[in-house]
Specification:
This protein is α/β, with parallel strands linked by helices. The protein contains eight helices and eleven strands. The structure holds NADP nicotinamide-adenine-dinucleotide phosphate. NADP nicotinamide-adenine-dinucleotide phosphate binds near residues 12, 13 and 15.
Length: about 240
């Protein structure tokens, strides 16, 4: 039997990096994509995968990436993130553009490009990492919550449109995971980023990676549609039990 292959976007850090490692451990050949190629190369060397530069906001980059992927059983739509925390009244249009381009149109571009290969595999799986922000609106978060809602609707729509095709679709919606996410959101402000996780036991990237691997290892007739996963210390996006 030929080696099964997986594609992980946003694999240069956090959830994507851990997921690539976990899928490689399960025997998949993993194509890892992101903009920071140096990090991807080190990861690909470690796991015996293939590093490919990818900017999900660029049609050209996605086309070149998809052409270089020979076949795909699994696509993990993970590239994404947030920029800023601002009220609607103070919304920064450039931050909104970044969030919509990366989370929504990025997921659309890469999914469209790889769909023929996923279908042709005869046993495909699309995992999209949305967020609890795809289920809730919260103050100062509308750029991110609206983008994650839209990304989720894209994914959920595909679940119906692909009925009868050999592709499973799973949405994983995490709460707080300690990665570079908050560092990106707060433009490199490490103090502000670490305050997000202060006094709680957040999820770590490996927690999500193991869930992706569990999903991937279900038999082809089993579709886990949605998985919402939060730290025990978190009830909703803005509701935490903090010890300090
Ligand atoms: N951490 C959380 O609390 C949390 C909770 C719920 C959902 N999520 C979602 O989980 C996903 C992964 O986030 P994370 O927590 O692992 O954060 P992270 O450590 O910041 O990782 C984000 C990844 O996305 C990649 N990326 C960003 N823009 C990209 C672009 N234009 N093209 C290709 N790759 C791009 C980054 O790589 P490069 O910069 O090298 O391109 C990086 O590998 C995101 O979709 C995020 O919204 C995170």
């Amino acid at each position: 039997m030929s080696t099964r292959t997986a594609v992980v976007t946003g694999a240069s850090s956090g959830i994507g990096e851990a997921t690539a490692r976990e899928l490689a451990k399960q025997g998949y050949h993993v194509y890892v994509g992101a903009r920071r190629l140096d990090r991807l190369r080190a990861l690909a060397d470690e796991i015996g995968g293939t590093a490919l530069e990818l900017d999900v906001t660029s049609d050209e980059s996605v086309r070149a990436f998809a052409d270089a992927v020979e076949n795909a059983n699994i696509l993990v739509n993970n590239a994404g993130g947030a920029k800023g925390l601002a009220t609607v009244a103070d919304a920064d249009l450039d931050d909104w553009r970044w969030m919509w381009e990366t989370n929504v149109l990025g997921t659309l571009r890469i999914t469209k490009a790889l769909l023929p290969k996923l279908i042709a595999s005869g046993d495909g799986l699309i995992v999209t990492i949305t967020s609890v922000a795809a289920f809730h609106a919260y103050d100062n978060g509308s750029g991110y919550t609206s983008a994650k809602h839209a990304q989720a609707v894209l994914h959920r729509t595909l679940r119906g449109e692909l009925l009868g095709r050999p592709v499973r679709l799973t949405e994983i919606a995490p709460g707080a995971v300690e990665t570079e996410f908050s560092l990106v959101r707060f433009d490199g402000d490490a103090d502000r980023a670490s305050a997000v996780y202060q006094g709680i036991d957040p999820l770590v990237a490996q927690d999500i990676a193991e869930i992706v691997a569990f999903v991937a290892n279900r038999p082809p007739h089993v579709n886990l549609d949605q998985i919402i996963v939060k730290p025990r210390d978190q009830a909703d996006p803005g509701r935490f039990a903090r010890r300090s």
